[in-house]
Amino acid sequence: MAEQKATNVTWHDHRVSKAERCKQNGHKGACLWFTGLSGSGKSTIANTVDHKLFEMGKHTFVLDGDNIRMGLNKNLGFSPEDRTENIRRIGEVSKLYTDGGILVMTAFISPYLEDRNQVREIMGEGEFIEVLVQASLETCEERDPKGLYKKARAGEIKGFTGIDAPYEAPEKPELVLDSDAKGIDELADEVVAYLEANGYLTC
User: Fold this and answer.
1) Residues 88, 196: Cα–Cα separation, whole Å
2) pLDDT for the residue 1
């Protein structure tokens, strides 16, 4: 974990409790952490789930990998150290959303098991929902929506996950989505069904 450099700081508890926010919102706060290879469908699924939940009157938000790297984390690259710091920051932001009673969805490759587990540790019990978007490397390369695999294969991008950098799949994810065989709507419906079945959409 990152070193605490600030001194003379004190944690301030909120006057409004999680239970009170849950009662007002009509649902619990939680983080749905979508992880998988580039091109597996993480962002598309997360945004589709976001839309479906929004239509149901739920309070939601999506934190997308590229969007975050254009703002909050624009000073980070793709070295192992920077990837770890990228995920640490997103974990902290996700915790703030969750504490605020929001269903926050993150769409990041987040290739390292240890980094994702550190995010799980900072969350409250049951507030971290790890969603593996499973798609073969062949499928992701066929899709290649951003042309990144082509560049990685040509040597124009170094340290690209799945090509010359590792991806460590979750050992016990809460949910596995088969992005090879199923469409976006069907996968998004599976996520919503999981939330309903596990009591996240009520208080």
Assistant:
1) 28
2) 60
Domains of the chain: 36-197 (3.40.50.300)
Of 79, 110, 136, 179, catalytic: 110
For residue 94, which of 37, 34, 54, 173 has the smallest C-alpha distance?
A: 34
Residue 63: partners with Cβ closer than 8 Å, 6 or more residues away: 90, 93, 94, 97, 104, 105, 106, 107, 108
Residues whose CB is less than 8 angstroms from the CB of residue 61 and which lie 6 or more positions away in sequence, other chains included: 50, 97, 102, 103, 104, 105
Nearest to 36 by CA among 189, 151, 152, 143: 143
**Global confidence as pTM:** 0.90
Catalytic site includes residue 136:
no
CA–CA dist 14, 18 (Å, integer): 9
Residue 66 has pLDDT above 90, yes or no: no
Cα separation of 179 and 171, whole Å?
18
